């Protein structure tokens, strides 16, 4: 197993890599292009961006300049809050597709559940999926309640839910809910803001396995059947973060890391996001 070959099958049969590169806060231009190229050279085949990140064009340029066929990649982007609504989402999708320079986007997500909008937005994603413009559709930052609301009227169940997920925010109930509904959970900010790397528990387990703390945290997500997209713009760290398929955590390791949970968020709770300011 390697980062290049390790994939999870989504509900519709599409294969999604277990580990991808997140590019949130990676600056458009040379910074994000260098990160994407470093990731592709290290074997990554999944890149996660969003219209809100304002770096889709640079991601697309990096992919075009690489020697890897776009059909061998898995590209995710997201519709931002002020782009939501049925027609607005269809227009936002076309802007993202043009910037990325691809005909088909592999995974398109609703970035946040904008009150009064996200169900209509989901209808637009279903249309894009039915037209073959996206290979898979999903959501981001949705709680069980949001998912329930979508599924009441949806023709298609979301295939992915990308949420904040790390040892300090081990969303076990949400994870179990998604698994029961065949929705793949995906973790953003899996390493926290870097502070989790210095935790004694994580350092001890890393030393035990001859791995870095970051590798242990990424592996912990995988052991919980959660896809993960660690963000880095440093080539050495990008390469290191990919080397998580040659070891596993034992029950004792998992219990120790699970015990770090404090229900602590680095980002907003979806119900508390300042939607009126976006």
UniProtKB/TrEMBL annotation:
One GO MF term: oxidoreductase activity, acting on the CH-OH group of donors, NAD or NADP as acceptor
Domain NADP-dependent oxidoreductase, residue spans: 30-261
Site, as annotated: Lowers pKa of active site Tyr: 78
Signal peptide per UniProt: none
Catalytic site positions: 53
Family annotation (InterPro entries): AKR (IPR020471), Aldo/ket_reductase_CS (IPR018170), NAD(P)_OxRdtase_dom_sf (IPR036812), NADP_OxRdtase_dom (IPR023210)
UniProt entry keywords in alphabetical sequence: NADP, Oxidoreductase
Entry-linked Pfam families: Aldo_ket_red (PF00248)
Sites where the protein binds substrate: 111
Family listed: Belongs to the aldo/keto reductase family.
Protein name: Aldo/keto reductase
Organism: Salibacterium salarium
